Amino acid sequence: MKALKIATFNINGIRSRLPGLLAWLEREQPDIACLQELKAADKDFPRQALEAAGYGCVYQGQPAWNGVAILARDSEPLEVRRGLPGMQDDSQSRYLEAAAHGVLVACLYLPNGNPQPGPKFDYKLAWFENLIMHAQGLCESEHPTVLAGDFNVVPTDQDIYNPRSWLKDALLQPESRACYQRLLGQGWIDAVRHLHPDERVYTFWDYFRNHWARNAGLRIDHLLLNRALAPYLKAAGVDAWVRNEPKASDHAPTWIELGSRKRR
User: Active site includes 109?
Assistant: First the structure.
C-alpha cells in the first residue's frame, strides 16, 4: 500500500465555504477527504471546482441539511454503497462508501440527537445500531477500511473542555458513548486517541460563547481503522488553523497519515 493522507471535515455548508475548502485542499493536499454537512442538493454540489483542484468526487447531497462526499486526489473514487443498510427508508443523506487509493472509505454523518430525550435522540440511537451492525463486517474485512466522519459523540470526558456544560447534550449521553465503545469493541482503532492517548485534542468549537478563542472544544470527528489498516498508521492530528479562517466551519479537518509499510 502506498503512503496516504486521509482526512475528515464537517464543512457545514459547502457552497458558502468553498473558498476555504479549496484553500485547505491546496495547502494540506489530503489524498482522500471525507466531507459532511454539505447542505446542498446534488445539482448544487461544486464538482467542477473540486475537479479543477485535482479531486475526483462522489457525493450524496440534500438541500439545506446533511449530505456527505468523498474526494480523492488525482483519482476517481469508486462508489460502493449509498445509504446505511437497515436505514433504507431514511430520507437523510448521511452515509457513503467508496474505494479510493486502495482503501475502502466509509464517510458518515451520525445524527446529532438533540434535543434529548425525544424522537431525534431515538433516531440517533437507531442509526447508531445499524452502523454497528454494518461496521462489524467492515472491521473483519481483509481489505484496508476506514470509518471517517462526524460521529456526534464525545467518547470520554478527556475529549471535551468541560463536560459539566454539556451534561444534557445528546453528544455526551451514556447511550451515545456506549454505542461508540461497542463500535471500538469490534476491533476498530480510534486513530487520534491511539497516537495521542493523553492529549486534549479537539475537532469542534461552537460558534457561541467565544469557544474558539478559549479553545473550549470537543472531539467528535473520528477516523476509525480496521485491523487490516491500523498497522499502517503513522500520524494523526487536526488542522486547527482552518477553524481560524474567515467564514470558517465550526469543525476543523481531522487527518491521519498512513505509511507504505506496516509499523512494527
Answer: yes
CA 233 to chain centre: 17
Residue 233's identity, in one-letter code, is L
DSSP string, 48-101: HHHHHTTEEEEEE--SSS--EEEEEETS--EEEEES-TT-TT--S--EEEEEET
Instruction: Confirm whether 150 is a catalytic residue.
Output: yes
98's grid cell: 467508496
Paired with 148 in beta bridges are: 107, 223
- Domain range annotation of the chain: 4-258
What is the Cα–Cα distance from 264 to 254, expressed in whole angstroms? 24
Do 102 and 1 touch, CB atoms closer than 8 A? yes
- Nearest-CA neighbor of 193 among 168, 170, 224? 224
Please check whether residue 105 is in contact with residue 97, taking contact to mean a CB–CB distance below 8 angstroms: yes
Catalytic residue among 55, 95, 150, 250: 150
DSSP E strands in 175-260: the ranges are 189-190, 221-225, 233-238, 254-258
Cβ atoms of 144 and 1 within 8 Å: the answer is yes
Q: Which of 55, 109, 180, 202 is catalytic?
A: 109
Tens-binned pLDDT, residue by residue, of the chain (264 aa): 789 999 999 999 999 999 999 999 999 999 999 999 999 999 999 999 999 999 999 999 999 999 999 999 999 999 999 999 999 889 999 999 999 999 999 999 999 999 999 999 999 999 999 999 999 999 999 999 999 999 999 999 999 999 898 999 999 999 999 999 999 999 999 999 999 999 999 999 999 989 999 999 999 999 999 999 999 999 999 999 999 999 999 999 999 999 988 776
Report the CATH number of the 4-258 domain. Answer: 3.60.10.10
